[in-house]
Write a structure and sequence with these properties.
Layout lengths: L2 H16 L10 E6 L4 E7 L4 E7 L12 H18 L6 E3 L8 H11 L5
Parallel strand pairs: 1-4
Antiparallel strand pairs: 1-2, 2-3
Helix pairs in contact: 2-3
InterPro entries: Ribosomal_uL18_bac-type, Ribosomal_uL18_bac/euk
Keywords: Ribonucleoprotein, Ribosomal protein, RNA-binding, rRNA-binding
Protein name: Large ribosomal subunit protein uL18
Amino acid sequence: MSQIDKASRRQKIKDRSRKQVHGNEKKPRLCVYRSLSQIYAQLIDDDNGKTIMSVSSMSKENRALEGTKCDVCRIVGLQLGEKAKAQGITKVIFDRNGFRYHGRVKALADGAREAGLVF
């Protein structure tokens, strides 16, 4: 499968799922983006069009993390869950953003669940 086919496939899946996935202030959307070497996660309030918080493997505290990419993703998920609980958010809607629920995306989701987020 060529790179163009992968990108268009992911975009189609993303567009299809975005019709059903919608977050609000009390139950925001947990959006995940996975690049080749990094991972980014955001809690988004779609009603107001605002990002409530974001955590990534590129943030200052996470740059020095060692281990496999999946280990780093799990830690990012834990950090996101802890920040969300500090703001009083316990329930979220998971948006895998067209990526397969496997590997690093699953590790981030598992880390967020370990921290106490429900989805």
